[in-house]
Amino acid sequence: MSDNTETTKTDYLNWDCRLAEDIVAEKGKVVDHDLIIFKTIAAILKGLNIRQADGSPYTNWWNGGFPISPSRILWFPHLSFRAGGWNNVLSGDGKVITESRNFDDKKQRKIAKTDWLPDVEKMREGQAVERCVFAHGKNALGESGYRFMGVYKLIDTSINQDDGLPERMIFQKCAGYMDTLPEGSTYYRGNDF
Q1: How many angstroms separate the Cα of 67 from the Cα of each of 14, 129, 161?
Q2: Average pLDDT in the 85-113 region?
Q3: Which of 35, 59, 96, 150 supports an S-S bond with 91, CB 3.0-4.6 Å?
């Protein structure tokens, strides 16, 4: 019995075997539905045209965030489970990320004071506070990497009554893509690129 179905060349996906950073650099943007995986944070920085102050590429980056403007950072979280005391939860529809901290942890209290509190003040003043989210996880083959989830804007927060610092921040997806930065952009230190 034949189903008279003929397989054509257009029935197969075209695989792009280039590195994620090369695809993004050529395209000029990273898009959430492209489903590409960056092997390292340094690869993300390379794809987005970010360099060290001396012009050389980053070979590694170990922090959870990388500031690219006064109110925008690249963020590299583990989502939907507790990681190092942080609890970053992605909603089922992928549109909301809730980040909360263990308010007894000294390191987290410091981050809440130096990073979160200024962001909360900016949000209250009507400024956009955004995170370009590259979530850490494993692909179908079990390889670890980072996938672009989108740009998320801070929309709400709660303050811990004991220490007066933010204990939870809620971000809502506002864009499914991010343009690469101007060639040779560096870590934001208070000056525009």
Answers
A1: 35, 11, 28
A2: 84
A3: 96
